[in-house]
Amino acid sequence: MVHELWITRIFNDYLAGPANSILNAVHFPAQDPKHPWSDWLVCEIVVVAFVLIFFGILRRRLSVDRPGKAQHIFEIAYDFFRSSSEEVVGHDGPKYLAFFGTIFLFILFLNIVGLIPGFDSPTMYPMVPLGFAVTTFLFYHYTGVRAHGPGYIKQFFGPMLLLAPLMLPIEIISHCARPLSLTVRLFANMFAGEQVYLTFITLTKLLVPVLFLGLHLFVSFLQAYIFMLLAMVYVGGAVSHEH
Description:
Helix content is 71%, strand content 0%.
């Protein structure tokens, strides 16, 4: 059997029945009914629960007169996200700020949870980055259709109707390659960072792991930012009238 995290073992011991019921209902039965829960899924559920609790508590403590440290940090993050969206997407960028901010924070928390002993980063499993990539793919096409209506399809034909037979397949391939590039970029970097960190923490016990811990944390922030930035670029291209 594949190595199982301690928290995944708890899920499989006590929640295997509900998981199997859901999987059977969608006609996707588990390969091992005794262990239907995967490490990446359990860690993702833990992160979702943490995010909901953390921001629920933070929301209650929001104050105009006496803002706390966490509120200051997220106000700075909000200003940064807003200015980035206006710079990349245009004046309509703040309309999609909720999506950009959610993508960044969720990926960031999924990246850094692997630094906690006993947990894995779900983003080092390809199906998790793929889920973010497909969501981004669908979202930017949705924003394009919403901004331009049926005329959004004209973006695939190029600047001249004469070039449409050449541009259409190129555009289709280009757009289909975007989810793949988003998936591979996030998965490969997080998987490599996790393996390097685990290797050095096995070989040494203190100094070198601390250095790679800092590197892993930096990569976690960087990859979350790059994913968000690319999402902004795609949305900007979809809603731009000049494009």
